[in-house]
Design a protein that fits this description.
alpha/beta, Nucleotidyltransferase, domain 5, five-stranded mixed β-sheet, 12 strands, globular
Length: 380
């Protein structure tokens, strides 16, 4: 933004902003966008309407994304551009402490690869695959979050890197990443359902992630669809997870085939038309559609994307899902609602989504100005 916009944004005078920006320009902390020969960095000159961007010397931001079997970390510029990424395979049974230790080591390595002196890390966006209070860092998922138990995710990362941490459950991060990958114009209200070893939902409304009061929004897998159904590991009965979770689907496929299939092998059989396996995936899809009918009554989305490991089964699971949802859908949302498969995103796209999400929660321009001159951001 240019200096006049900064003054309005920070609710301070243009004179104060001009003095502060002049100092930042001289120190190479900000620079005019698209430097030209007649406006060189460090000269302390920029017209009032010249758009300014934060230079790397002003600092960087980072990301740590904890998927079931992979941890992805990355660093980026303050404007959200990705500098570097690294993907680290991990066991689905790895504990939260092990995952964080691996991520911290990788982030430090990425920092060490930057030219010295290292820029300040102004914030880290962390997307764990567990139910966590995004404000306190406490893991509060009970038995469903046992691998992350007895650990405070926020504290571990803040102590490990000495920077501000923004937490967002993996399902909501996935929704925001998918939203960023859509062509314009984007949907107003996007839902992303992840069908994997858990069943989770993320919502993006008008470009903002909907997290709930504590960061617990979207636990679709623990919505009961049958009060007389099997007992879930969360202690409730008939949770969607017990019908459509990958563990349940895989176990049923192993029983009907009499072989110790992997999940990918079961999906391949479904795609090949094996009737025994197709019926299992169809039942799982119909259960998800039944649950989503209630979700649509509450949230009125215009696009639902289906992702996660089970989504690789394509129409084998999507067709019964759509049938179950639209069979009882109200015309208001059912008429124009689209249900489509999510796209596969690169590690760079996932990190970029984290960096953009961090910018929604952290005022990075104010942080840089405060580091230079705390008085410059005092509200007048």
């Amino acid at each position: 933004m240019h200096r006049a916009e900064l003054a309005r944004h920070l609710q301070t005078s243009r004179a104060t902003i001009t003095n502060t920006v002049t100092g930042l320009l001289e120190r190479g902390m900000v620079e005019p966008e698209g430097l030209s020969a007649d406006i060189a960095a460090g000269e302390g000159k920029a017209p009032l309407k010249e758009k300014l961007v934060l230079a790397r010397r002003a600092g960087i931001i980072g990301a740590a994304i904890h998927q079931d079997d992979t941890t992805i970390v990355g660093l980026g510029e303050l404007d959200g551009r990705v500098i570097s990424t690294r993907a680290l395979p991990c066991s689905p049974d790895a504990t939260g402490r092990e995952r964080i230790s691996t991520a911290l080591a990788a982030l430090r390595e990425l920092l060490d690869e930057l030219p010295a002196p290292h820029p300040q890390l102004h914030g880290l966006h962390v997307a764990p695959n567990t139910l966590v209070n995004r404000h306190t860092g406490e893991v509060l998922g009970g038995a469903t979050s046992r691998r992350w138990s007895e650990i405070n995710i926020r504290d571990e990362y803040e102590e490990g890197l000495g920077t501000a941490v923004v937490l967002e459950n993996l399902a909501r991060h996935a929704a925001y990443a998918q939203y960023g990958a859509l062509e314009s114009p984007p949907p107003r209200n996007l839902l992303h359902v992840s069908l994997s070893f858990g069943v989770a939902l993320g919502q993006v409304l008008d470009g903002r992630i909907i997290s709930g009061a504590h960061g617990g929004a979207g636990e679709l897998g623990h919505v009961s669809i049958d009060s007389n159904g099997p007992v879930c590991r969360c202690s409730n009965r008939g949770c969607l997870f017990t019908y459509a979770g990958a563990d349940t689907v895989l176990e049923e496929c192993r029983i009907v085939t009499g072989t110790p299939l992997s999940l990918d092998e079961a999906i391949d059989l479904a795609l090949a038309g094996d009737d025994r396996v197709v019926s299992i995936f169809s039942r799982a899809g119909a259960a998800v559609g039944m649950a989503l009918n209630s979700v649509c009554n509450l949230l009125d989305p215009d696009l639902i994307l289906i992702g996660g490991h089970l989504s690789r089964a394509g129409d084998v699971i999507l067709d019964p899902l759509r049938d179950a949802l639209f069979r009882n859908a109200l015309p208001l949302f059912g008429r124009d609602l689209r249900i489509e498969p999510a796209v596969t995103l690169s590690d760079q796209a996932l990190v970029h989504a984290s960096l953009r999400a961090l910018r929604l929660d952290v005022d990075l321009a104010a942080a840089v100005l405060a580091a230079h001159d705390p008085a410059a951001v005092a509200i007048s």
